[in-house]
């Protein structure tokens, strides 16, 4: 497949997830939740997660944002559902490394569709947009009370 055809396919996947986001809305039962903002462009996400028996059984997001932010949130929800919180945290780490582009041989298969966002690394202004949902998930899952600390995304990646 020619490079331009591959780029077009990736663009289509991103546009489809943005226009028809998966797991968009609210959950009936929530164990972990958070609201985060990207002050750079105004993206806002409210993330709700239902964890039981050490599995992410359901996940939903709402809020407003750019195409990259909404597509990334949709892809993230698809990728993490059914995984343990520890597996989801590993996915967050892989995603963070991928979008800053500092590890060219990084295995991104666990990210499923979200691996198409690897091109974001070429556009530093869009990194925070792509990372918002993933950071929100990490914050929601790692808070002791399940209520992640609401806040703003201020860094491109976790160290």
Written overview of the protein:
The termini are far apart. Residues 154-159 have low confidence and may be disordered. This protein has helices spanning 3-19, 67-80, 85-100, 124-142, and strands at 32-38, 43-52, 55-62, 151-152. The chain has one domain: Sufe protein. Chain: A. It has four helices and four strands; from the N terminus they run αβββαααβ. 42% of the residues lie in helices and 17% in strands. A four-stranded mixed beta sheet has the order 3-2-1-4, covered by helices on one side. It has 159 residues and is of the alpha+beta class.
Low-confidence sequence ranges:
154-159
- In order across it, which strands form the biggest sheet? 3-2-1-4
CATH classification class: Alpha Beta
**Quick one: biggest sheet?**
4 strands, mixed
Order of helices and strands: HEEEHHHE
Tell me, what's the shape? globular
**Average residue-wise pLDDT:** 87
Question: How is the quaternary structure best described?
Answer: single chain
| Classification by helices and strands | alpha+beta
Q: Percent of residues in beta strands?
A: 15-25%
Cα distance, first to last residue?
36 Å
Give the helix level as a range of percent: 40-55%
CATH topological fold name: Sufe protein. Chain: A
Spatial extent as radius of gyration = 15 Å
Q: What is the number of E strands?
A: 4
In total, the number of domains comes to 1
Q: What would you say the CATH architecture is?
A: Alpha-Beta Complex
Q: How large is the count of helical segments? A: 4
GO molecular function, one term: iron-sulfur cluster binding
Family: Belongs to the NifU family.
Protein name: Iron-sulfur cluster assembly scaffold protein
Pfam families: NifU_N
């Amino acid at each position: 497949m020619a490079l331009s055809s591959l780029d077009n396919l990736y663009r289509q996947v991103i546009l489809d997830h943005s226009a028809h986001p998966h797991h968009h809305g609210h959950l009936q039962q929530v164990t972990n939740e958070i609201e985060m903002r990207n002050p750079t462009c105004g993206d806002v996400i409210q993330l709700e997660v239902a964890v039981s028996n050490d599995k992410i059984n359901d996940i939903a997001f709402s809020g407003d944002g750019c195409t990259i932010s909404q597509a990334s949130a949709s892809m993230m929800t698809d990728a993490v559902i059914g995984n343990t919180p520890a597996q989801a945290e590993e996915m967050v780490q892989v995603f963070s490394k991928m979008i800053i582009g500092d590890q060219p041989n990084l295995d991104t298969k666990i990210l499923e569709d979200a691996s198409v966002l690897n091109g974001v690394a070429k556009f530093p202004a869009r990194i925070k947009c792509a990372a918002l949902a993933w950071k929100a998930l990490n914050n929601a899952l790692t808070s002791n009370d399940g209520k992640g600390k609401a806040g703003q995304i201020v860094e491109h990646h976790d160290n």
